[in-house]
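Please check this one:

***
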Amino acid sequence: MPESVSPRQRRALRLGWQFVRPYRRQVLLALLALVVTAAITLSMGQGIRLLVDQGFMTRSAHQLNQTIGLFLLLVVALAVGTFSRFYLVSWIGERCVADIRRAVFDHLIGLHPGFFEDNRSSEIQSRLTADTTLLQSVIGSSLSMFLRNALMVIGGVVLLFITNPKLTSIVVVALPLVLAPILLFGRRVRSLSRQSQDRVADVGSYVAETLGQIKTVQAYNHQAHDRELFAGTVEAAFAVARQRIAQRAWLITLVIVLVLGAVGVMLWVGGMDVIAGRISAGELAAFVFYSLIVGSAFGTLSEVIGELQRAAGAAERIAELLAARSAILPPAVAQVLPQRASGRIELQQLVFAYPSRPSVAAVDGLSLTIEPGQTVALVGPSGAGKSTLFDLLLRFYDPQQGRILLDGRAITELDPDHLRQQFALVAQNPSLFRGTVEANIRYGRPEATLAEVEAAARGAHADAFIRQLPQGYQTPLGEGGIGLSGGQRQRLAIARALLVDAPILLLDEATSALDAQSEHLIQQALPSLMAGRTTLVIAHRLATVQHADRIVVIDKGRLVAVGTHRQLIEESPLYARLAALQFTTG
């Protein structure tokens, strides 16, 4: 079997051991309880032999009382051992899965954003919840059952040999017949279990995607089509599950027929020996007991192996997440900027294509120098590469060619965390999180005081509307800031950026989707936000562009022109066209 263990399965086994290892003491205690309960169960066979031969056959009340007393003592010991085993094994399962979930989340949150372009977040969520729940069930129950029944089989076969070697040979001959289908079906079940988990993840992914965009779904009356597509996804999951269940059902059926068939043959042979006087009735009763123990343990093993195969598939999927490596790593020896950078940025011959579109350059040979304290507006048609520059500055990606310098140091030589402390980002669609208004503003500086939070909100012209909310700064926000207008969300994002007080500000079309009143309020907030900072603005609005120190026109990832608004209207046909289309109506 060792050669059939794939590298993925070895990685899954290592993953399991990695999380179980810290709790070796509890594991040893659980194993001790497991061995004790198995031994007590097996010793009951000898109790039955004594009961029959010395209790029933001798017709002695004293002997019967003794054997019954011993039997009841074993029952109490078995109950105590079972309680200990169940509690410890369940505790280990819950503890390990809690550790796995934390480890996976801690690992994922440090991966570069490109990883989440290639892997659906809803599928990752399924792995973090459904797969870990399956692992909890296996570590906290099925694994214990497997070990216990494996001990019962081994101990039972040993005691069968001690009790009657002749009859045991019948059971031993049947063993290969039972093992063969377990190994044959087990491999198939393992493959189907992995497929089944993938299909379940597809179901979760579809639900998350559709319900997350429910307004769009209903606005376009897409419900019927979505029901049909979801039904197909569910049926695909069911089809794989049905195959897996059928394989396991065949496995269990074969085991029962073979094991109990062997027991039937053994009973016939043993019965003939009792009639002939070669063995006692008590020996046969004990032998039947051990045979049934071995048979039922084998039946349970065949069921549990199916669960273990499912868990192996789940562990493989979780191990894949933990094995994912970030493309953005800190250097071995990171250079250190002053606590607050001056804000001088140099872009030198940048060439970059997204991993998902390697043949299309999002930035193509772009060079630009931005002096400390300057406000530079980036202008160009959609897809020109403006937002990509922000991604590169924040080192969410590294360029394939060229480099970016901050205060004369290449950003690849800086620790990414330290680099990002120098930037404050206000996105076009600001990200707000479930929690209070205060917590959302404090997002970039968790240690800030309430007075500092309120000062930042006043600077962003957000204080007035916050105080009108039901609980003011303690008002809980829904996911994504649901319930707030676009302008309100944007002003909270500006307050967050003000509170961070970073030397470089990145404004990604901060007012492009707002109504005139909201835009007016935000335009009032921007001067205090931009004061004393190097500011890069992705701009579609004339009001923002006109006040910039320089305007940079970008098209197809290339720098087309640089100058003031007036200069570019005269010198750059592309800028003049954009101005005519976008700005004159602003």
User: Anything to note?
Assistant: Residues 214 and 221 are 10 Å apart (CA to CA). The chain is about 65% helix and 10% strand. The longest strand covers residues 345-352.
